[in-house]
Amino acid sequence: MLRLTDIKLPLDHAEDALPAAIRAKLHIGAQAIRSYSVFRRGHDARKRGNIQLIYTLDVEVADQAKLLQRFADDPHVRPTPDTDYRFVAKASEGAAHRPVVIGLGPCGLFAGLLLAQMGFRPIILERGKAVRERTKDTWDLWRKRNLHPESNVQFGEGGAGTFSDGKLYSQISDPHHYGRKVLTEFVKAGAPEEIIYVSKPHIGTFRLVTMVENMRNTIEALGGEIRFQQRVDDLLVETDAQGTRHVRGVMLASGEQIRTDHVVLALGHSARDTVEMLHRRGVYLEAKPFSIGFRVEHPQSLIDQARFGPQAGHPLLGAADYKLVHHCRNGRSVYSFCMCPGGTVVAATSEPGRVVTNGMSQYSRNERNANAAIVVGIDPADFTPYDNSGSPLAGIALQRHWESRAFELGGGTYEAPGQLLGDFLAGRPSSAFGEVQPSYKPGVHLTDLAGALPDYAIEAIREAMPAFDRKIKGFGRPDAIFTAVETRTSSPVRIRRNDDDYQSLNTRGLFPAGEGAGYAGGILSAGVDGIRIAEAVALAIGTKA
Ligand code: FAD
Fold it and tell me: How confident is the model over 153-204, as pLDDT tens digits?
């Protein structure tokens, strides 16, 4: 098979334009093409009014060797790489040993799935509820201001990405094509097939719920066991005569102990109590940089117009997204993060008395507003005002401080504090919404956000917004709405692991994984890391394939 890259066609091309483009590119006749498929479809929107589709195509041709020779100097004609997934190990016949996976977010889901597919019958422990019950609890906060600390946007089946935009792209390097395995399994579980080939696929919340359930059924059918409302509260660790620490099992909140020598930690970035427990148990942790800021909302039509001009609304383009960055005079960088086209801002706290924002959308992305986090990068030196003990958990203290402040500024009712962009820039509190209506539930309490983040962050965001307005005309419109506070952008802690066997730096048998351990940022990369970790566990227990 040949892979042709960078095949450009107009947005409204006819179906037979693809084989015609193949013939033109390879200088061959129709009879030389046996079959072709679209590997990827993206678009180039740099020229307003002349948006082009950019294809990567896999083509089966009559005389591949000859064509490869002819196009030896053309980087856009190459043999198609082998992206099929192959298992690295399998469980030994009748093996009694069962690995434990903590957490059923995308990382735990893929670690559990792969271990089950290799025959290891994993036990997966999830503190939250199964996804349907979890959905009700999550909506209870959004509709009635009742937070369920163990069942919410962060905790429960599917993990943090379940109520999300379901964006499935990532900039990670993926030489083993694990991302393709993730997408293929998602399609088997009910995702639309297009996620395999569109360049920026997304799924949206409703479909994710069903997919997560289907994946659970697959894991169980393969002998895995999934237990909900089973929070791991302690780790059983033994030190051998050489002074090496080994994990020997976990203890649940109920007091039950599960013995195992292999534990995958796929906790996500919000299990602060569990990370505190790991710290007490002496597991090697370190503070890591992350970002803090606000969510901003604009009319989606403004973003569509700015990005797509007269072609806005074209079904192949969908709702437009954006990605912005600005380097500030005070040395900080401000950037847009987790942009949700045609979506809503959601209440994403997991702790009482705190307010956290995030964004989600449905597959259709047809809500009125576009939203994105506008965040400022911070690093461990910024954490000391909140905890100067030198603890690796100081970033959590910072998060809690500003999440509690957001709760107070929002009126103490789980409403998010908000401000119109024009007022934020002018340094005056807001008192009425303009044309843009906020989507955050249970509501937005207008106030002054100058006290909602550290001064350097406020200064940086004030400098960045006019710069963003120069990139997207109208981005700085005075009635765009900020809501606070966006603190859970990634984990403030890294649970360090070895580069070779992926086990904790100082505790054998413990496999830190996913976003909570600092090894992923997003659904796809967390799934990819789950695969990587399942392989490491399988190689540690099983027979090499
Ligand atoms: P998580 O998904 O956080 O899963 C961790 C799981 O571990 C949780 O279910 C938790 O309950 C469980 N757990 C924690 N502690 C324990 C314990 N002690 N015992 C038992 N279980 C425990 N990313 C994207 O790529 N695209 C998006 O569009 C997107 N949108 C998002 C929207 C929202 C509202 C949120 C909150 C996040 C979004 N993200 C998105 C980020 C993405 O969800 C995360 O990067 C991803 O879920 C991380 O996967 P994970 O498996 O590492 O951790």
Answer: 999 999 997 888 778 888 888 999 999 999 999 999 999 999 999 988 888 7
- On whether residue 208 sits in a domain, the answer given is yes
Q: Which domain holds residue 410?
A: 289-486
Is residue 87 domain-resident? no
254 and 365 in a single domain? The answer is no
Omega cis (within 30) before 485: yes
Q: 212: Cβ below 6 Å to ligand 1? A: no
User: Given the structure tokens 């509260």, which residue do they identify?
Assistant: 233
For residue 154, how far is its CA from the centre of ligand 1 (angstroms)?
6
Q: 287 CB less than 6 Å from ligand 1? A: no
Same domain, 417 and 497: no
Angle at CA of residue 503, ends 498 and 505, nearest 5°: 55
pLDDT value at position 173?
A: 87
Distance 254 CA to ligand 1 centre (A): 23
State whether 298 and 274 are in the same domain.
no
Structurally, the chain folds into a number of domains equal to: 3
Given a cut of 90, whether residue 20 has pLDDT beyond it is yes
Check: CB of residue 199 under 8 Å from CB of residue 193: no
Burial (CB count <10 Å: 0-12, 13-18, 19+), residue 66: exposed
Complex prediction ipTM: 0.99
Query: How does pLDDT run across 373-414, given as a tens digit for each residue?
Result: 999 999 999 999 999 999 999 999 999 999 999 999 999 999
The reply to whether ligand 1 has any atom less than 6 angstroms from the CB of 204 is no
Task: List the end-to-end C-alpha distance of the chain, in Å, as a whole number.
Answer: 27
DSSP 8-state assignment for residue 334: E
